[in-house]
Specification:
By secondary structure, the chain is of the alpha+beta class. The protein contains 1 helix and 4 strands. It has a 4-stranded antiparallel β-sheet, covered by helices on one side. The chain starts with 6 loop residues before the first helix and ends in a 5-residue tail after the last strand. The model has no long low-confidence stretch (mean pLDDT 85).
Length: 172
């Protein structure tokens, strides 16, 4: 009635199951790697969005504390390079009123949609308008550097680094 498998068929069946097991393990490994890539890409997109938002925030402020109420024609009257950063009473970005208040500022924030906790660090310097390299004296151009990365689990090893410049022009 029922036919018995000979030893050759048994060996082929075992080999087929081993091959299927290998294929499934490799497929699972590929799916996990793809999920890690997607998660890492999502974190980089979120960090880029956060950094871009901070650039917009900084560029909406006055160029310098000295330019808020009156025009400035001599760069030597701008904030000293060693004093860039928040002024007295400016404790966080909601109280900042000029571009260089971001110097030395650091903020950790939850991204929208519960996509993680990200930290952003800021540095503001005066730069030479000819080549935007760091400059040690006051000029009518400042550079804001932002570093943003994920700080909660899973911690992102990639850091998004962006910069923008702001120039001061006063027309008579």
């Amino acid at each position: 009635m029922g036919e018995k498998m000979n030893s050759g068929q048994v060996v082929l069946s075992i080999a087929a199951f081993m091959f299927l097991g290998t294929v499934l393990v490799n497929f699972n490994r590929l799916v996990l790697a793809s999920n890690e890539d997607i998660s890492s890409s999502r974190d980089l997109i979120t960090a880029t969005t956060i950094a871009s938002t901070w650039i917009d925030e900084a560029q909406s402020l006055a160029f310098d504390q000295t330019t808020i109420n009156s025009p400035v024609y001599d760069p030597a009257t701008l904030t000293d390079p060693n004093c860039l950063g928040p002024d007295a009473g400016e404790t966080d970005y909601t109280t900042f009123n000029d571009f260089d208040d971001f110097n030395g500022y650091s903020i950790t924030q939850q991204s929208e949609g519960n996509n993680g906790l990200f930290e952003s660090d800021f540095t503001v310097t005066y730069v030479d308008p000819e080549n935007i390299n760091f400059h040690s004296v006051q000029t009518f151009m400042k550079r804001l550097d932002i570093k943003t990365w994920r700080v909660d689990v899973p911690v992102t090893t990639d850091t998004v680094r962006m910069f923008t410049t702001m120039a001061y022009f006063k027309f008579n």
